[in-house]
């Protein structure tokens, strides 16, 4: 019964997180469009927009679902540790660990999406005063004012630089993850080689003894050949 409840909550969370991610993406696209049009002060404030209210509502709903799923996982953990289910402990622990991993993934995805949304909104708030000053200057000096055009171009350059920096950071993070994975593989191979070497010490000892016997036989054979040569020379001269 607890497992069925956990699955139902996980399905609801999955749907909510997909909608939550789409909302954040559409929020970013909408704000970019408004920045490109440089709308006037009649644009609603960010905190009062319908998208912000929807974000807050969905965030609360997802947090409630995560709390419920956490409670279900805790109940399943209590059941696995209770008496009367010793023969099923291995299977139950495996199931519990899988549900915990799913909860951890959903929690991580939620916090990541929420952090991205808040970062976008904070950037909008920081750039809001700058856009307002640009609009005021443009309305007072005319649309074709040279200085206003320079400000707009500089603002566009800053946006492009910001995007390039984000892409570079993403590439660096991916490279770091790949290097970490390769290091783990190399450590695993080294550990296996050490295990094999420690598992067969008798083979190494036998090989060393064989090498020592070969060297001894070579020395004996050399000594016999030398003595025979000396005796032949003595016999030849006498």
UniProtKB/TrEMBL annotation:
<keyword id="KW-0813">Transport</keyword>
<keyword id="KW-0653">Protein transport</keyword>
<keyword id="KW-1133">Transmembrane helix</keyword>
<feature type="transmembrane region" description="Helical">
    <location>
        <begin position="219"/>
        <end position="237"/>
    </location>
</feature>
<dbReference type="GO" id="GO:0048219">
    <property type="term" value="P:inter-Golgi cisterna vesicle-mediated transport"/>
</dbReference>
<dbReference type="InterPro" id="IPR023601">
    <property type="entry name" value="Golgi_SNAP_su1"/>
</dbReference>
<dbReference type="GO" id="GO:0005484">
    <property type="term" value="F:SNAP receptor activity"/>
</dbReference>
<dbReference type="GO" id="GO:0000139">
    <property type="term" value="C:Golgi membrane"/>
</dbReference>
<dbReference type="GO" id="GO:0006906">
    <property type="term" value="P:vesicle fusion"/>
</dbReference>
<dbReference type="GO" id="GO:0005801">
    <property type="term" value="C:cis-Golgi network"/>
</dbReference>
<keyword id="KW-0472">Membrane</keyword>
<dbReference type="GO" id="GO:0031201">
    <property type="term" value="C:SNARE complex"/>
</dbReference>
<comment type="similarity">
    <text>Belongs to the GOSR1 family.</text>
</comment>
<comment type="function">
    <text>Involved in transport from the ER to the Golgi apparatus as well as in intra-Golgi transport. It belongs to a super-family of proteins called t-SNAREs or soluble NSF (N-ethylmaleimide-sensitive factor) attachment protein receptor. May play a protective role against hydrogen peroxide induced cytotoxicity under glutathione depleted conditions in neuronal cells by regulating the intracellular ROS levels via inhibition of p38 MAPK (MAPK11, MAPK12, MAPK13 and MAPK14). Participates in docking and fusion stage of ER to cis-Golgi transport.</text>
</comment>
<dbReference type="GO" id="GO:0006888">
    <property type="term" value="P:endoplasmic reticulum to Golgi vesicle-mediated transport"/>
</dbReference>
<keyword id="KW-0333">Golgi apparatus</keyword>
<dbReference type="GO" id="GO:0005797">
    <property type="term" value="C:Golgi medial cisterna"/>
</dbReference>
<keyword id="KW-0812">Transmembrane</keyword>
<dbReference type="Pfam" id="PF12352">
    <property type="entry name" value="V-SNARE_C"/>
</dbReference>
<protein>
    <recommendedName>
        <fullName>Golgi SNAP receptor complex member 1</fullName>
    </recommendedName>
</protein>
<dbReference type="GO" id="GO:0015031">
    <property type="term" value="P:protein transport"/>
</dbReference>
């Amino acid at each position: 019964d607890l497992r069925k409840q956990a699955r139902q909550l996980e399905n609801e969370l999955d749907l909510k997180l997909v909608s939550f991610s789409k909302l954040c993406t559409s929020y970013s696209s909408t704000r970019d469009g408004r920045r490109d049009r440089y709308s006037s002060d009649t644009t609603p404030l960010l905190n009062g927009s319908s998208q912000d209210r929807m974000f807050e509502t969905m965030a609360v709903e997802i947090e409630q679902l995560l709390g419920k799923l956490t409670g279900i996982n805790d109940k399943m953990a209590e059941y696995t540790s209770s008496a009367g289910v010793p023969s099923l402990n291995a299977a139950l622990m495996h199931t519990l660990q899988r549900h915990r991993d799913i909860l951890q993934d959903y929690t991580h995805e939620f916090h990541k999406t929420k952090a991205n949304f808040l970062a976008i909104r904070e950037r909008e708030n920081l750039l809001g005063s700058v856009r307002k000053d640009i609009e005021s200057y443009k309305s007072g000096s005319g649309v074709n004012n040279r200085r206003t055009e320079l400000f707009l171009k500089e603002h566009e350059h800053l946006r492009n630089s910001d995007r390039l920096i984000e892409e570079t950071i993403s590439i660096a993070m991916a490279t770091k993850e790949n290097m970490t994975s390769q290091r783990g593989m190399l450590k695993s191979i080294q550990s296996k080689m050490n295990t094999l070497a420690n598992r067969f010490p008798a083979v190494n000892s036998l090989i060393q003894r064989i090498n020592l016997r070969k060297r001894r036989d070579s020395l004996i054979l050399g000594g016999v050949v030398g003595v025979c040569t000396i005796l032949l020379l003595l016999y030849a001269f006498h």
